[in-house]
Amino acid sequence: MHHGVEHMAEEYYDYDMERRRRQSLAEESLNEQLLGVTRALSDTITSMREIVIALANADDRKLKELHRKVKEAKERVESMKEDALTYLARLGDLLNTSTLYKDIFLSLTRVAQMTEGIAYRAYLLASNTNITSNTISELLTSIADSIQKEFDRLEVAIQALSSNPKKGYEEAQLVTSIEDEVDNLYRQLTYSMYRELRQDLVALMLLRDIVDMIEEVADTIRDAAENVKFLALYRVARH
């Protein structure tokens, strides 16, 4: 009888180890997939700065080209996200953190989709009217720079998830403080737009749309960072 119990314990232990091994492999794979999406998105974030500069110069040809580029990147990100969600579905309930991963993939895809919307509206705006306000141009460039900083921190945080989750947590934490900068710039931009474009309703409405979407990109990057932070904490607590 005693021998049987030992045998059962041994089998149970092996099962437990096997499950942990599978969990660990799944996490590594998901972290790799997250990095892949982040890299695919990286060009899109860089394009955002080019979009606001081209908008300030009313360069509709450049904006048409940027829209095409951002649209292609969006499609690439969407297809990678579909692969990741299929992978997550196949894992079933192996990981407690599946929902966090899913939400990060969805947030990153949302960033790609919104940036495409920004590029398209910027093209429409430059085709129809000029923004002659330096204040607005400077604020738009600053907000694009802040989003780039936010995204760079997020990328480093995702990179660190496997090797150094504590660093991942700290980097993701920095995203939140940069997002406060964006909020401040957004308020200044909104005020300047109403003050300087009140004679040009088409420009005002299109720019309002663009600025709202830029603010939403910043928020979505912050949401992704919050989830990365939680993933990092989870890894630190477990090891």
TrEMBL record:
**Record keywords: Coiled coil included?**
yes
- Domain of life per record: Archaea
UniProt keyword annotation of Coiled coil present: yes
Positions in coiled-coil regions: 56-90
Pfam families per the UniProt record, alphabetical = PhoU_div
Record's keyword terms, sorted: Coiled coil
Q: Which PANTHER family match?
A: UPF0111 PROTEIN HI_1603 (PTHR36536:SF3)
- Family under the similarity heading: Belongs to the UPF0111 family.
State what protein this is by name: Phosphate transport regulator
